[in-house]
Amino acid sequence: MSGQLTAELDAALTSVLDDVVLPGASKIDQLGEFPGEAIKAMAAAGLLGLVSSVEVGGGGADLRAAAEVIERLAGACGSTAMIVLMHYAATAVIEAFGPGDVREAIAAGAHLTTLAFSEAGSRSHFWVPLSTAARAGSEVRLDAHKSWVTSAGHADSYVWSSRPLRADGPMTLWLVPSDTTGLSTKGSFDGLGLRGNASSPILADNVRLPARAMLGEDGAGRDVAMSAVLPWFLVLSAAFSLGLAEKVASETARHLLGTRLAHLDAALADQPVNRLAYGRMRLRTDEIRACVDMTLAALSEDRSDAPLRLLEVKALAAEAAGEVADQGMRLCGGSAFRKDMAIERHLRDSLAARVMAPTTEALLDFVGRAALGQPLLDPAPDQP
Q1: What is the pLDDT of residue 232?
Q2: Which one-letter DSSP state was computed for residue 147?
């Protein structure tokens, strides 16, 4: 995926990583702080507007370039990478259906957005929302209990899912400003990994919006999510896992080559058992990269296997990254538990990312259905 950013953006990203993201990553993880300075630096460098269209002042970059950004961010700070990942995925929908002023604000780096799909009750099955939408005079009323929203309380808007307003389809999408009356963030995130991504529940109680806040057609939200959101989310999630795996592999190699056993007058890397284990790490990491590259190629060439590759890529990458991080912990021994090595942080981040919907289990079911020629989703049950 290297070489997809312009030289100017590549230099800008390197500067943001070296000057802001890396120095702050440990503190963000330890304190569970939202990486506000990193996001501001990304905005100033033109990287928040990277995938916005040129016509509204954005970078006009494609999915491959976005994947490179997420991979490099993930190797430095998983929380920052996840926030930008969700921003890019939500931007893809807003670019297709959102209002011009919001598109221009995102392109200028003045607007952070995110997805608000996960709900209490539907769990990882985001395509079966329980949130409701109803007419309220000239407005629309939204009520919901969103279980996990990245950048909750920090984003400027949420790409929001609900049951349809009136149509027969399974889902409708909305653009909800975060300062809308009736929205409330419940608590701060204090989890195992991705501790700075501000992933918290959001309640919507009698939230009123104009009807024009709808993204796409009423009832067509699932189709929009599958066509506009899912390709970005799945590929960028895989790029996230790749960045973690590459960082753990490089840190493990440095430890094996630089740590000597005095009684044997040899480095850890001189022991065949360690080389064998590291070889497995390298193989799994390269598998992730190959799968990401193959998926991007299939999508860009509009190949017949593109849908299957898309379903496979996050599942493979997430599981492999967890294995690589676990093996890094084993090979580096007690040193891996030190905060300065960051391997244990990357392990925690890899596990947290793995359960983001659609989970590995859901994706494997999709892969099985697709490979067997079955419909990906069962018919939606009748809504009360």
Answers
A1: 98
A2: E
